[in-house]
Amino acid sequence: MGILAPLKKRYHGYVSQGDKRTVVLRGRNRCNGAAGYVSLTGQACRVKAAKASLLKKIYNVLLCSLGPQHWWPAQTPFEVMVGAILVQNTNWTNVERVISHLKARRLLTAKKLNALDVERLALLIRPAGYFNVKAQRLKHFLTFFCDHYDADVRRMKLRDGAQLRQELLGVHGIGPETADSILLYALDKPFFVIDNYTQRIFARHKILNHDTCYQDAQQFFHRHLSRDVKVYNEYHALLVRLAKDFCRKKPLCVQCPLQSLPKTRCVNNN
Ligand code: SF4
Questions:
Q1: Does 253 sit in the ligand 1 pocket, CB within 6 Å?
Q2: Radius of gyration of the chain from Cα atoms?
Q3: Mutation test of ligand 1: which of 66, 198, 204, 244 has the most ligand atoms closer than 8 Å to its C-beta?
Q4: pTM for this predicted structure
Q5: What are the mean pLDDT values of the chain's consecutive 10-residue runs (270 residues total)?
Q6: Which numeric CATH code is attached to 77-186?
């Protein structure tokens, strides 16, 4: 008891010891699906409430200090989808080169790209790195998009968000971060995007653990923020900016807008 992170928490009861009360919740572990129980002492409840309020505070501080980030940097939803696949394990500048190249050749439509074979796609997206693997992934996605939605973003938008997420995760090479980027930034569906930057920042401030799995981290944001596309859009973009400018591998806490928040010992020692 106590190590589970229930998917759907249900109040199960409580255990009293003197004047201390421990709330017991029944649920299912999000990572491995195992059923079980989790206990929350009064202190644990307070810690959770404090983390939730910190989450909102961080958003407000970042928005005030860094300003709106105007994400995603793309002209069309399809461009977002392509960018979300190509940006895996590379920097955005390389992706921009590929997108500009495809635009210049008038190839940036799902049907035109899908008509190309994988070898040709790989050559076209070469600057994005890992181009053979990414060409396969892009091809799988393009085939899915053309076959299931006739390459029509509006049709895709009409699909229920949770069902569409499952479909995207079923496309070979699309993981949760890419799927959620497509859902949020291309299709305006409220799914918070978790990436290594988010994990790093929130672990350094003891809000998430270093080994918190994707689903648990996402659930944390979903539970404590209203399901608002604009807020999710801006919050993730602000976290990326924060990680690039301040919360680097070697953090620059002294200049950082979040420098007053409590941190883990390893960051404090830097
Ligand atoms: S740079 Fe320091 S203060 Fe800023 S987010 Fe990272 S750990 Fe926190």
A1: yes
A2: 21
A3: 204
A4: 0.84
A5: 46 59 62 62 70 91 97 97 96 96 98 98 97 98 98 98 98 98 98 97 94 96 96 98 97 96 75
A6: 1.10.340.30
